Batch of 3 targets.
Target 1
Amino acid sequence: MNWDDTTRGAPSAPGTPAASDTEDRLVGSLADGEDQAVEAALRPKDLDEFIGQEKVREQLDLVLRAARARGATADHVLLSGAPGLGKTTLSMIIAAEMAAPIRITSGPAIQHAGDLAAILSSLQEGEVLFLDEIHRMSRPAEEMLYMAMEDFRVDVIVGKGPGATAIPLDLPPFTLVGATTRAGLLPPPLRDRFGFTAHMEFYEPTELERVIRRSAHLLDVHIEAEGAAEIAGRSRGTPRIANRLLRRVRDYAQVKADGVITREVAAAALGVYEVDTRGLDRLDRAVLEALLKLFGGGPVGLSTLSVAVGEERETVEEVAEPFLVREGLLARTPRGRIATPAAWAHLGLTPPPAAGAGPGGSGQQHLFGT
């Protein structure tokens, strides 16, 4: 997204794609164009409307209230966490609470220090700059950001070689809101310049039920409490996925039922879209089935497993594995990937005697691939 045509309420810049087909998955946590448009309509406008992340909301509310009381711009804010948990929404809420405009860009879009200098030099006093995937910024731009955040100044280099001259450029006070899915990749000098940092946690099913009921109301969809619970249980703890599943269940209810989302309707709809009771989709189950049926539960190397399911190595590692590990269905070990007893139970399969012996893969002497 180009920085100079974004304003308050603009959709978020896309997250880091793990694979080319990530956005095609119904339970993928990245947002495509349609998702961004719908999310913009469903986004809460202030902290009181924002559901979940109780500690983050409480802490952020104190930061913003104190800044308003002082008549100053808010401290720089760093939000970390998985895609789809509300980092972009919170950045827009920060701008709304401070009655300030917001400008949105992303780390991959800033590949040169001059790109960042152009953005910073055009900011208004008090403006909020939202920098998504901040860890993917180029190193020269990153180093320029240090001074901009701390001293509200940048040095623009004119010329090259021995004749190059640094021209200091003063900036108006502004608030930088950085978002990242990989906080560990941020260099300490950058991380330390944020006055407030927060980690976004995955949502509990009860919180997702509230998100779904609110979204259903805004979409003018009639949903029963049991229907909301059914969708929430398959949403991977992520509001973006919950809203996406709600829209697909709404379509099913309009075509196949009377438009009312009950538990039965939600279960039938998500069955059509191949999202099972734990939120696993086709790719997730393909990985588990290959691991269990072809390799006896492992250990098996990532490359071999990727070939077995017909996907790129990066797709399996960055798209499917994190959720399977978080659900306790798959474990990464030094010898390869292994299935846990829960994986056998979920697919209704009986493990061989040596399977499920624990993360060390005790009793399993084979290793498929690397």
Target 2
Amino acid sequence: MPGTENKTAKGKAATHVRQKHALLVVNPRARRGTGSIAAARDVLEKAGIRVTEEKPAAGENIADVIRRNAEGHDFVMVGGGDGTLNAAAPALVETGLPLGVIPLGTANDFARTVGISAEPAKAAETIAAGKLQGIDLGEVNGHLFFNVASIGFSAELAQDLTEHAKKRWGTLGYAIVAARILMRSRLFTAFVDHDGTTEKIRTMQVSVGNGRHYGGGMTVEETATADDGRLDFYSLEVDHWWRLLALLPSLRKGTHGRWDDVRAFQTTEVTIRTSKPRPVNTDGELSTYTPAHFRIRPKAIKVFVPAG
């Protein structure tokens, strides 16, 4: 009978729908990394996604795990904070595998930028829903970053903020260490090359942002997104630490570019030179030194984001 043939054909087609296979990599040192992510896995498995968790072997990092297991997986889920995502970035670009974010870190600034819930189970629901978006990455001296790269105050903060402090105090740890560094910070001279011009500046901090949020509550620029194809530069050219305290509300909102002692512009490429090498903080990790050449990598990876 024709009706029977159609039902049989549909049944055969249904059996040939391939199950999605996700690679899960969790950073056990993330603030919530030692906790269970069983609820997140349960959400995905109920959605028909097979999850395989892999851990770094001796001498491996997270990028190595992704490269080693890329074949046979449809996407990668990374459980950790912004530093963990930063470590995974090179392998995500190389393999082209989409990224699902399970926020387990202290600040989870990238997750906030794209609207991913801080609750692992809800983040897993976003992944299961399947909406992918092309996301830009910043690059400095060959090192990729999701949120922001900074020279000066933030680099000193990254140097002094220990894993112990982050685990014990969370975002409060940033404030405690920042206050101590702020009292001893001094301006430094830098040369900024961008868009055919060179500017000499005296600054406490230079930041180059790709996304919107960074540093556990700061905002690079109020209109910034992670897919706008541009870098947001700003320089804090304040002469007294108490001026920075006055700036804090604007730094949280991303409106600091309106202040006279803040230099701000948008670009796609910029180089920062200093008289002696200074460390560059990328997503909370010290990764390179000045001279620092920054550029935007438009739509470098695909990320599961909330619908709407």
Target 3
Amino acid sequence: MENFFIGVKEWLIGFFGLGDFLKLMTTHDYGQFLTWKGITALIGPIIPFLLLFEIIRMLLYRRFKLVDYRISFFSLVLNSLVGRVISIGMVSICIGLFAKFAPFSLEITWYGLIYGYVVWEFGHFIYHYLGHKIRLFWCLHSTHHAPETMNLSVNFAHFFLEAPYADLIRTSVCILLGVSPALLFLIMFIDGVWGSFIHIGENISKDGRFGFLNKIILTPSHHRVHHAKNPLYMDTNFCNLLPIWDHVFKTYQEEDKSIKIEYGITRVMKKNSFLDAYFGEFVVLAQDVWNAPGLKNKFLYIVMPPGWSHTKAHKTAKVVRSEYLQAQQSA
């Protein structure tokens, strides 16, 4: 029983990111909190404690629903066992393979950080865009879009192989384009914190735009749009902090407050089912491949966008959004 409580304690310390903070506190050398390690030790617990605050606030206002957190919780439990280890390994492999091919290597400087972040966002855009446009990759990414509400726990709803796939692309792009490993890790830390924060729901920030910042960076409002299944919002806002590539590739979309956001995916799911959210897209893809006539169509179901059909009755996000925009223009 004692080992059980010790295990629970260690899990809680890990979940809330308190490990480094507690270690620094035991040294009584509080000046270390001014170092990079100390700063990350202070920032790391912010998102988990913000999630706790979100839940407590919803309990006080009697708006808390356990089912809203079910998919995210079970995803976190499963992914903590395997996903993180594979992801870290993928980053290390990519650095080892591609660092020698980089034409230059920028270290941590103000101009290096700006350049590196633009490159990182490019790699993130590629991974994220392909996650919506290639059916097999959508199977990896769809778990993150399955929750039908927006809250900080959605940040933990991922298929365990998505992070290694994402890091393969983002790390390779950054290293090949001259982002040094040290600068890459700094960017990954910043991006991880902000990427988690933009999942805050209306219980913490109802508007989510943050005033003038909405015109400069991607805010929770933008990311709510990305998670929406409304036709206007489909496949938009793929960046994480800087929307530069969304503007370049015409995927940027502001939130229209007159349109109520509908979260989730367009496929009819079993209500609040973790198994369907985690494995459902693989099952449906396997069925489509099995029933498709000919090897060519079977292959196309794997690589074409979700909603593609060999019968030409396509219901891809691009088709649905285009039809919606045309209807709005003619109305």
